[in-house]
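Question (not urgent): is this output format expected?
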Amino acid sequence: MCGLAPSRILGALKYVGGGWEHASVRVLPTGKVEVVTGTSSHGQGHETAWSQIVADRLGVAFEDVEVLHGDTAVAPRGLDTYGSRSLTVGGMAVVKAADKVIEKARTIAAHLLEASADDLEFARGRFTVKGTDKGMGLGETAFAAFQGHNLPDGFEPSIDADATYDPVNFSFPHGTHLAAMEVDTETGAVTLRKYVCVDDVGNVVNPLIVEGQVHGGLAQGIAQALFEEAVYDENGTLVSGSFVDYLVPSAADLPSFITDRTVSASTTNDLGVKGVGEAGTIASTPAIVNGVIDAIRHLGVEDVGMPCAPQTVWRALQAASSQAASTKGDAP
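Got this back:
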């Protein structure tokens, strides 16, 4: 369950805030486009994905779109980035704002082309009167709005638009992750031999971003399973407060992941997208721990606490061995 958002559901769960997201799309007189989003990227590539969405929706060049975020002086409305909600909620707000821009521009284009708005078709950034070659581009309508010389009566000289989107439901990505684990029973050392995963995150805007997010999530989830631990002494003092003591894996500690996707479009939003940011973290940790336990279950080990460090695994093996010896000794 991803895309934390439906405000009514969050209210029922007694959240303080809602789950909506806000966006603005501004078409400058030059034809360039500014997108203001309440979701702030910290590495997910929103600037790229949002530009792709707007460029596709408005029929403008990708390089002519600029995404602004992360500063309340620029983007005063929004609920930020968490819960794999950025695209499913924030991206949809961008789509809704872009659609409003098109409809506002349609009114100007119909006026200047002396046609009914219902007779205009919009494709690849251009309005065309049905059945003719008569038309004008989105940038031309933006410049006409900026000039204000010839606008419909009562029309504000702008085609900029704002939108707030509150979905009716979550998105539901799914997938399967497999980890092949090897355990040295003499030392407790664990080796991740192979990792294969197939995820379904609905329609994909940018495959490279999705791949990167899956890889990053895998590294984080595997680290939780095998390396990272906050250790406190008897006085409650954190003794793993630096990266000397708190182990974070490097690329050398992880294998080359084998990843793939299936695509079933989400039915809860118009883009057909699902959350992806947490896919790797949700699946990899239990896959790794289950793999470790499965490797030594025949020796009597039923559970290993995280992280599955060599000492922890070795102690689990010793405890199972002692239990087996005790049980054998109790036998008549």
